[in-house]
Amino acid sequence: METKASYRPTIFSLRHFFSYTKDPHYKIPAQNNFASNSSYLIYSYFFCLVFVMIAGILILLLDNFLVKQLGINSIYKQIRTTNQGVKDYFGHYSLAIMVLAVPLIEETIFRLALNLKKISLSIAIALLCFRLLGNSFIRIDYQEITYWLSAAGSIGVLFALYYFIPQDYLKKIGSKFFKNIYYFSAISFGLVHILNIKPFRPELILFYPLFVLPQIIMGFFFGNIRMQRGFVWSVALHGLLNITSFFLR
Q1: Cβ 194 vs Cβ 17: under 8 Å
Q2: What is the pLDDT of residue 174?
Q3: What is d(CA 167, CA 183) in angstroms, rounded to the nearest whole number?
Q4: Residues with Cβ < 8 Å from 184, sequence gap 6 or more?
Q5: Count of CA atoms in the C-beta half-sphere (13 A) of 148
Q6: What is this structure's pTM?
Q7: What ranges do the domains of the chain cover?
Q8: What is the DSSP-derived secondary structure letter of residue 133?
Q9: Which residues of the chain carry a pLDDT beneath 50?
Q10: Cβ 241 vs Cβ 48: under 8 Å
Q11: pLDDT score at 116
């Protein structure tokens, strides 16, 4: 059951996007036809891309300032080197990985549980635990015993959460604190990309969040379309932005 009555736009509008972002609330995604959802997706993609490009320009200016004033290595180039390393590692499969696998995995972790269902939360937390243990979802080391122990432990977390979290309690708490959950989803999605900055320098920690501003912006757009149209469409938007980034690099 929705906690607030809200206007449901037939197409994406910045006015409604900012209105919902300012006061996000739990809602059941609208049931629209494929054409309507596709239109909403394209508009979301266009406006998100514009904001990301503006953020990218600001990052380049900041990076240039830090390089000249502090004499450090370019953080922007460090991020690009990490991303290029992923493309080189997977070779011909890198496009499919970035456009299909990565969006599905990341949206499952950061956006799936926004429907406030315990199965969604259980899956998201289990995947997050697996990742935080230092494992990769796409670089599988079949001969490493710790990999399989982590996988088994994460599966155990999934079943434990599913069977011990009361659905009614989750819905009640989630609805009450949905705004906090929504913001955490978007911002943590961006901040986790700080891991792409290598080598990591603790003295620059205050600057690092500024270099993942594009991902934080994306996080809010992904969250919006997930709540307005459904999980599949947040994965689709994520994939569109990844394929754009893939070729622009």
Answers
A1: no
A2: 85
A3: 22
A4: none
A5: 5
A6: 0.92
A7: 34-248
A8: T
A9: 1, 3, 5-7
A10: yes
A11: 93
